[in-house]
Design brief:
8 strands, 280 residues, 2 domains, single chain, 8-stranded mixed beta sheet, 12 helices
Length: 280
């Protein structure tokens, strides 16, 4: 492993589904040689992570001061608890953070200003929005940085999230909009697969056959898109022979205003994100 790529010591406070996914990505990458600590409320959850190489997994029910101890010794602190729990956790660790410690939020809807209001504006804060394919190393993570975050700080946190996929750096004002595309996006894909499979069952295929056809068709199409570097419209054109079966099917989808439906759906998700940010 190149020392240029190695990450400093990291603490993940609240290593639940997303924090746990990032933890696994870091372990797999081998970049966290300087130390990796994860905290969870229950001993059972902490035990699930205890066998990961190089990870110190601690349960709050056994060590109530685990969050402060982990934060005090880490160079990067990831906040992975539920959004409503973030302010209390920040107040708990604020006094022990060393100067220059990077604090990274995994909590949806919690603003950088909320972090700065408790930790102080001199602590570099980054707000992240990973999505669930982090579990298999194929996440898209949106990343927004506070004014006190240096270019070097940003590059360091980008490298951390690159262990679980792709990173897109945006202004914080774009984080909620990003969440409606990459954050919610996997659910849109799964919904499409569900409905596509139902259509296959209606045509006489078994549920197992329908699932195999639809899932592998989507996975294969995505793999071809990635490998070819072609535009989606061009790949679609190559499948759509003039006056053929696919052209007729595409015509039905166009009449259904599919492009407008995706805009409407993501607009609805964005409106809800703003409601949640306002406490509604």
């Amino acid at each position: 492993m190149s020392t240029d790529l190695a990450l400093p010591s990291i603490a993940i406070l609240g290593a639940g589904s997303m924090g746990g996914a990032i933890l696994h990505g870091l372990v797999t990458s081998g970049l966290a040689g300087a130390g990796l600590t994860a905290t969870n409320r229950s001993a059972a959850k902490a035990a699930e992570l205890a066998d990961l190489a190089g990870v110190t997994s601690v349960a709050l029910e056994e060590h109530p001061d685990a969050n402060t101890a982990a934060a005090a010794s880490a160079d990067i602190v990831l906040i992975g608890v539920k959004p409503a729990m973030v302010p209390d956790l920040l107040r708990e660790i604020a006094a022990v953070l060393r100067p220059g410690t990077l604090v990274v939020s995994l909590a949806a809807g919690v603003t950088i200003s909320t972090f700065e209001g408790i930790l102080g504006a001199e602590i570099p804060v980054l707000r992240s929005m990973p999505n669930t394919p982090a579990l298999v190393g194929r996440a898209v993570t949106g990343l927004a940085a506070s004014a006190s975050t240096s270019e070097a700080d940003l590059a360091l946190v980008q490298r951390l999230f690159q262990t679980v996929g792709t990173v897109i750096t945006v202004d914080e004002s774009q984080i909620d909009a990003l969440s409606t595309i990459s954050g919610s996006g996997p659910a849109y894909v799964y919904f499409l697969i569900e409905e596509f499979a139902k259509a296959a069952v209606d045509k006489g295929f078994t549920e197992e056959q329908a699932r195999l056809m639809t899932e592998q068709t989507l996975i294969g199409a995505a793999a071809l898109l990635e490998a070819s570097g072609e535009e989606p419209a061009e790949l679609r054109r190559r499948v759509t022979s003039p006056k053929g079966t696919t052209e007729r099917a595409i015509g039905v989808l166009e009449k259904a205003r599919l492009e407008g439906i995706f805009t409407e759906a993501t607009d609805a998700a964005l409106a809800r994100a703003k409601e949640l940010a306002a406490g509604a």
